[in-house]
Amino acid sequence: MTYSHSSEEYPTSRPPSAKLLGGSHFAAGYSAEHVAGGEFVVGAAFAAWGASPSAVLMGLIIGNLLAVLSWAWVCSPVAVRARLTLYEYLSRMAGVGFVKVFNVVNGVIFAVIAGGMLTISAQALHGAIGLPAQTNWYSDSPAFIGMVALVGMLVMVISALGFHRLTTVARYLSPYLLMIFVVCGLASLPLLWQMGRAEGLGFWQIFEAYIWTGRTPDGKEPFSIWHIAAFAWGLNLPLHLGMGDMSTLRFAKKWQYGYHSAWATYGGHFVAWVGAGMLGATSALLMGVPIGNLDIGGVVVPVLGVAGVTAVVLASITTAVPSLYRATLAFDGVWRIGFVQMTVFLGAITTIIACFPLIFLRWLDLMAYFNIIMAPVGAMIAAEHFILPRFGIRPLWRAESRINKSAIITWLAGLILAAGLLMSGVHLFFVFIPVWLVCVALYAVCGYREAKGYRQGVSLEALYEASYGHDEITHQTRQSQPLLGKKALSIILVVMLLTCLPLYGDDPASMLGVFQQLLMALTVLYFSVVMIINGWRLLR
Q: At 2, is the pLDDT very low, low, confident or very high (cuts 50, 70, 90)?
């Protein structure tokens, strides 16, 4: 079966070997995408959930490990062997009618994620110039709308350049963003220590008293280790167990590059969440308000100053761009108007979505509901790829004219199960786990019964090759270009850590202005060096 492609993104075919990428692209892409503006929201949320320090730290260690294994053991092997986008895989597995419905739902999800990132960027810029936070479901500020439009246009342009250019930009941004979140923690610690000493608190007691108190503002039961672990595991379910990252990992030379998701989980979802939580608590104490009353600008500006706003905007862009890219692939699978044209159209829609702060205000709940929608679909692909071939049924066994009843039954059953679990009182963050496991088993059983006429007595590799094909043998492989000036940039990043030293004196609060000026100067220097040494490559 031959499928043609309409662009360098190969939306309906396997990319050739010359287009495959090395591990550094995925390390940079994961760390940049998941060290995002949304991490400031999550860091503050842990305090509102009443989690204790031990619950936060141990929960993140466990949940992030499960997320890495989900990427490396489930999503990446399918992506590298099939080398198809999620949408093309579903089209061949379940049929055009099924995938059109799914593409629209999935495209909306990623468009909303991208829009939320634009909202976060605009919130930070809006707060930095002293304008009030946007807390209604709509915006009443022309300045806020203008900022959303500006950032939205930038995201649209980068996304339209395609996946390979996207990862190139990420390789420049990810080291800086990761360092900023480390600075969040290092800069907050002496300020918290100064306040704690005044009240006679020890080191660990400071975390319990000011950051993760073990108490919720409304008196509800605080979150346990398992709540935090389930949240950390499930936050990116649409990408790993939901198989969304098939669309990007199909460019990986090896399935083991799925382990680079550790840069996302432990760089973004551990260091960033812990650092952002410390930063939010410190800013709330400096301003004398509850942490729940701070918007993004209120979280970053009191401690980090203008450099903090810069980091929020850049971190939000690095998540908005791949989210818009995935949304474009989804909608382009339904209405094939061209990758660039669809990117421009969706970029405009996403920018409009971002002008309504309601999405930002309900961000974490929306992500949990998205997980429930995506879980059955990822489970079906896992069963199709890993289980059915053990019984002699090749992946993508469905004949072109045949409706895959197993897929329809499994998705509907998964959604019904999720609704039942929620109504029975199961916490929203836990629902995806039984839904995914039940759907794997259900699709395997239904698929085995429906496809028993397609069974073959051949090897696993023969079944996979019959379904997916194989990588073309070429003499040219795509080499990842080195980051020029890497040593100079590394020195700048190390010096950024040293800017925290003035805060470790007798009166850290009095040195905040000096620290903020140094941090902003080094931010300008870092990106000036990037443009001077690598600007031509970026523009090209």
A: very low
Q: What are the phi and psi torsion angles at 203 (to 5°)?
A: -60, -55
SS3 for 426? Answer: coil
Beta strands per DSSP E along 274-386: none
CB half-sphere exposure, 483, CA atoms < 13 A: 19
Q: What is the reported pTM?
A: 0.83
Q: How far apart are CA 379 and CA 10, in angstroms?
A: 24
237 neighbors 375 (Cβ within 8 angstroms) = yes
The answer to whether the CB of 319 falls within 8 A of the CB of 116 is no
- What CA dihedral angle connects 455, 460, 463 and 464, to 10 degrees? 140
**Facing residues of 252 across strands?**
21
Main-chain phi, psi angles of 81, to 5 degrees? -75, -40
Residue 455 CB: number of other CB atoms within 10 A? Answer: 14
- State how far the Cα of 63 lies from the Cα of 42, in Å rounded to an integer: 14
Structure tokens at 95: 């049929």
Q: Which percentage of the chain shows pLDDT scores above 90?
A: 33
Residue indicated by tokens 């812990």:
274
d(CA 142, CA 271): 35
Question: How far is 253 from 148, CA to CA, in rounded Å?
Answer: 37
Q: What is the pLDDT of residue 375?
A: 94
Residue with tokens 């039984």: 434
CB 15 within 8 A of CB 251: yes
Distance CA 333, CA 346 (A): 13
Q: Please state which of the ranges 302-311, 315-324, 430-439 shows the lowest mean pLDDT.
A: 315-324
Q: Identify which of 531, 494, 501 has the alpha carbon closest to the alpha carbon of residue 175.
A: 494
Residue 236 CA to residue 241 CA, distance in Å, equals 8
Q: For residue range 447-484, what is the model confidence (pLDDT) as tens digits?
A: 999 988 888 888 888 999 988 987 664 444 444 445 55
* Residue recorded with tokens 């990132």: 117
Full 3-state SS string of 214-260: CCCCCCCCCCCHHHHHHHHHHCCCCCCCCCCCHHHHCCECCHHHHHH
d(CA 518, CA 525): 10
Quick one: pLDDT at residue 277? 85
Find where tokens 């929203």 sit. Answer: 428
Pairwise CA distance, residues 8 & 160, whole Å: 11
For 379, the enclosing helix (H) or strand (E) is: helix 363-382
Question: Three-state DSSP class for 21?
Answer: strand
Whether 368 and 430 have beta carbons less than 8 Å apart is answered as: no
Band (pLDDT 50/70/90 cuts) for residue 315 is: confident
pLDDT in tens, 247-256: 889 999 999 9
Q: What does the DSSP 8-state code read for residue 478?
A: -
Q: Which residues contact 538 (CB under 8 A, 6 or more apart)?
A: 168, 169, 172, 530, 531
